[in-house]
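for the recovery benchmark. C-alpha cells below, seq after
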C-alpha cells in the first residue's frame, strides 16, 4: 500500500507522483527503461539499478534543474525520500529562505542533500565523504551544477564523523547536520537475513551502495551513537543534529541515550514515500530552538479505525428488498431489507450476531466470529452436494444394515449437538426456517422431540443443515472467539453502505474476508434474479 499521502506536506510528489510516460517522451535515456504494461500504463522495473538511476537523474533534471552522474556500484538515492528529509530540516531550523549552514555527513556520490538544499534554499553545505569514488563523483556533481560557492566537499579519514571535519572551522556555528547512516552491521543484515520480519514482502527496489555506504560496525545504532558522542563535545557548534534511520526499533535506544546524556531538546519524525518508511531523529543543546512535534498517532489511529465497507447501488435495492420480504422482513426501508439479508448470511455461516441500539436511519449488528466458516465456501458446498447425491444410496444400504439401538442414536445426537457452535438468531422479527424438504427426507420442525432448530438453506445450494441450540448464547458472552465487529447498515445518498468496524480479536484479515464474503453474497443474489 502506497504511503505517498503521508509524505511531508510540502513534498512536490505528495499529490503528483512522477508521470513516467511524460518523462519518457522528454528524456530518451529514461525512455529506454520504461515499459508499458497490459493496461497501457508506463511502468519501471525498480529491481534494475540502471532504471533506478535513470529515474533519479531524470527527476533531478526535470524538477530541480540538476544534472548528476552516479556510478552503479554506489548508492542511488530516491528523490522523494531525500526531499522529505530536506523539508523536515526546514521545519527544524524554522525557515527555508534565510542563508543557513549545514553539514552532510557521508554525502555519497550523488551529493544529493547539498545539491537540493543549495538549489532550493540557497543553503551553504559542508559535505564530508570517506570513499574515494564517492568523493570524486560528488565533487564533479557540485562543479557541473555551478554550486561550488555553496557546497564544499571534503575528504575525511575513515570512521570520522563530525570532530575532524570541524577542526579547522572553530568559529563557524552550523544550523544543522544531516546524515543517512549505514543501516546494516554486516553482509547478512544487508541481504535481509535475521533483520527483516518474515511476514514483510521483499523490498520492491534494488539495494545498491558501496560497503562504507550501507554497512558499519554495529549498524546504524552504533553509528548514530558515535554522532551523539561527537555532539556532546561540540554541543552548541550546531543548532540541530539529525540522522535518518532505516529501522524503527533504533529510535527508542537512541532517544534513551540522549535522555541519559541530558540533551534538552529531542524530536523525531517519519518519512513516508511509495512503500518505504524511514525515521529521523534530531536533538539540540539550544533552549530557544523551535521543536517540531513528533508525528501524530492520529494517522495510524484513523487508519486502524477506518471501517471496511462496500456499497449496494440503488438499482439493486428493489430486488434485494423483495428477497428480504420473502424471508419474512416486515420493514419497508432498504436498510431493513439489507439487514435481514446480512443476518441470513451470518446465520448460515454460524456467526453469532444480534441487533444493537444505533442512530436513526441506521441499523447495527454486533458480530462475534467463533470459527472461520466463510473461507473455501464453494469447495464446502460442492462437498455437501456430493454427499446429498449419495443420500439415496445410503438409505438403500440402511435397509440391509442392522438396527441401531435408541440409546446409541440419542448419544450420537447429543454428541453432535455438543460439537456445534452456538448461534444466536438475528432478531425475533426474522425467525429461522421451521422446516425444509431435501432429497432423502424431511427435516425436523421446531418443537419436535429432539428440541433443535435447523438453519435455512442457502439459495437452494447449501442443503447441509447445522443444528443450533434453542437457547443460544449472546455474542458478548463468548470467551473464545476470532474477532468481534460492529456492522452498520446506512444510507449514502441513494445507495446503501455496509460498514464493518473492528472491535477486538486476533486477526483483522478474517474480518476483511468476511466483508468480501457478505458483499459477494448480496451482489450474487441480485445477479441471480
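predicted aa per position
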Amino acid at each position: 500500500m502506497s504511503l505517498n499521502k503521508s509524505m511531508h506536506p510540502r513534498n512536490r510528489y505528495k499529490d503528483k507522483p512522477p508521470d513516467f510516460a511524460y518523462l519518457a517522451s522528454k528524456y530518451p535515456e529514461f525512455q529506454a527503461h520504461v515499459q508499458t504494461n497490459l493496461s497501457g500504463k508506463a511502468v519501471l522495473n525498480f529491481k534494475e539499478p540502471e532504471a533506478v538511476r535513470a529515474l533519479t537523474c531524470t527527476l533531478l533534471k526535470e524538477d530541480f534543474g540538476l544534472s548528476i552522474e552516479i556510478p552503479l556500484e554506489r548508492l542511488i538515492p530516491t528523490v522523494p525520500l531525500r526531499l522529505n528529509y530536506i523539508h523536515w530540516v526546514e521545519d527544524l531550523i524554522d525557515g527555508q529562505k534565510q542563508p543557513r549552514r549545514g553539514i552532510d555527513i557521508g554525502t555519497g556520490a550523488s551529493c544529493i542533500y547539498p545539491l537540493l538544499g543549495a538549489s532550493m534554499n540557497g543553503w551553504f553545505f559542508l559535505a564530508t565523504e570517506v570513499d574515494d569514488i564517492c568523493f570524486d563523483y560528488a565533487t564533479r556533481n557540485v562543479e557541473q551544477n555551478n554550486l561550488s560557492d555553496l557546497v564544499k566537499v571534503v575528504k575525511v579519514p575513515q570512521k570520522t564523523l563530525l570532530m575532524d571535519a570541524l577542526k579547522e572551522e572553530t568559529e563557524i556555528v552550523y544550523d544543522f547536520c544531516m546524515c543517512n547512516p549505514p543501516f546494516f552491521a554486516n553482509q547478512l543484515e544487508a541481504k535481509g537475513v535475521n533483520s527483516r520480519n518474515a511476514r514483510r514482502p521483499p523490498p520492491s527496489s534494488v539495494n545498491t551502495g558501496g560497503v562504507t555506504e550501507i554497512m558499519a560496525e554495529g549498524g546504524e545504532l552504533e553509528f548514530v551513537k558515535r554522532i551523539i558522542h561527537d555532539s556532546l563535545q561540540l554541543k552548541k557548534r550546531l543548532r540541530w543534529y539529525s540522522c535518518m534511520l532505516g529501522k524503527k526499533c533504533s529510535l527508542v535506544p537512541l532517544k534513551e541515550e540522549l535522555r541519559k546524556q541530558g540533551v534538552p531538546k529531542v524530536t523525531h519524525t517519519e518519512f513516508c514515500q511509495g512503500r518505504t518508511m524511514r525515521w529521523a531523529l534530531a536533538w539540540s543543546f539550544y533552549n530557544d530552538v523551535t521543536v517540531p512535534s513528533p508525528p501524530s498517532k492520529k494517522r495510524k489511529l484513523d487508519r486502524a479505525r477506518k471501517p471496511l465497507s462496500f456499497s449496494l447501488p440503488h438499482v439493486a435495492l428493489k430486488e434485494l428488498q423483495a428477497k428480504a420480504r420473502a424471508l419474512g422482513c416486515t420493514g419497508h426501508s432498504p436498510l431493513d431489507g439489507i439487514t435481514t439479508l446480512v443476518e441470513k448470511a451470518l446465520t448460515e455461516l454460524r456467526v453469532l450476531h444480534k441487533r444493537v441500539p444505533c442512530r436513526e436511519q441506521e441499523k447495527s449488528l454486533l458480530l462475534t466470529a467463533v470459527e472461520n466458516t466463510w473461507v473455501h465456501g464453494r469447495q464446502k458446498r460442492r462437498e455437501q452436494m456430493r454427499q446429498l447425491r449419495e443420500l439415496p444410496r445410503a438409505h438403500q444400504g440402511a435397509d440391509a444394515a442392522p438396527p441401531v439401538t435408541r440409546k446409541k442414536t440419542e448419544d450420537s445426537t447429543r454428541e453432535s449437538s455438543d460439537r456445534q457452535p452456538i448461534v444466536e438468531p438475528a432478531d425475533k422479527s426474522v425467525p429461522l426456517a421451521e422446516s425444509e424438504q431435501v432429497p432423502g427426507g424431511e427435516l425436523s420442525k421446531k418443537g419436535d422431540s429432539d428440541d433443535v432448530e435447523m438453519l435455512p438453506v442457502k439459495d437452494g445450494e447449501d442443503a447441509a443443515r447445522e443444528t443450533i441450540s434453542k437457547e443460544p448464547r449472546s455474542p458478548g458472552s463468548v470467551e473464545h472467539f476470532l474477532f468481534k465487529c460492529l456492522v452498520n447498515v446506512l444510507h449514502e445518498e441513494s445507495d446503501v453502505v455496509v460498514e464493518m468496524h473492528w472491535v477486538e480479536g486476533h486477526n483483522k484479515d478474517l474480518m476483511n474476508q468476511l466483508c468480501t464474503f457478505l458483499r459477494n453474497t448480496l451482489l450474487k443474489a441480485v445477479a441471480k434474479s
